[in-house]
Fold this protein.
Amino acid sequence: MAAEEAATEVAADLGGVAADLVFLFISPHHSPHAEEVGEIVREKLPAAHFVGCTAEGVLGGDREFADSPGLSLWAASLPGVDFASCRLESAEEGQNVLLLEAMTEIREPTTMVLVADPFSIVAEDLIDELAESRPELVFAGGMASGSNQPTGNRFYYGEEVFDQGGAAVLFRGGRNISTVVSQGCRPFGKPLVVTSCEDNMIKELGGESAWQKFIEQVELTEEADRERLTEGLHVGRAVDSRSASEGAGSFLVRGVLGFVKENGAMMVSDIPRAGQTVQFHLRDPASASQEMENLLQAGCERLDGKVAGALLFTCNGRGPRMFDRPHHDAALVSRIFNGTPLAGFFAAGEIGPIGDRSFLHGFTAVTVLFHPS
């Protein structure tokens, strides 16, 4: 069976050293046998901390299995690293803040890697609640995508298998973990200041209607970029006013839902505030690929290439739905980090930091890098 072979191979790769942490991601094809798969992996690869979920597609090494049966298994021995794991309760139970407080009373972790159910966990609220009590936390991870129905996903936490909530691993300090977030967009036009807004509508930019400012920015772009706008318009909110001139990577990118014909207001999937700096963004495969490569390369240089393993949470709108060559994101991470052990999945929402805050993203690739302190 694939699970037994994978667990045996991973255990051999550890060279007889016991695993401290195991991540297991399985495609929906294996959902009916989720408990059996978990038992097989735990028997062959016992670990104190065992976390995982179902996903539309999984990633392993330099390969992506977007539409075919797949199982991705990742294990690590982490001597000297202070970490803990916990089960996330579904939103209506509201126990996550109390649970995290109990788990972190001594450890005070600063990195939380989580997998969660999009039907029972409101990721934005969870991040806000936990960050309020633990502002030092950096969040990374993804929303399970193994089902488009409530209770359709499966989650692993220790010996438990369940269909709501999620699971998380908490690490102390940021010395052993780095996060690279590639949103797959690039800005066009000029940065603009929100001068009037209400709820999720930007009414005015620089004192003029959002529609008028959009038309002005389009007129500044090249013809090829105008054609790409038919694939979707986005707006980036500068993470702080000083970063607006830094270009891609310095904005939190959100989708533009449309314009109000009567007053030219722009509806966005965000809650804007007056005084914020924004810039229009577009997405295309070439810019998404180049941005990810640039950010990963910068991370590699910063760490001097010393990465022991990686987790990759990439949007299920990427992969073959975005790129014209297979295995794009996984192959890119593998190439830049010299084949470091990698596992991950195609997510229904990706979690990662922009600036000093963490957010839920879309069409984004979040790479979590494990390295020596």
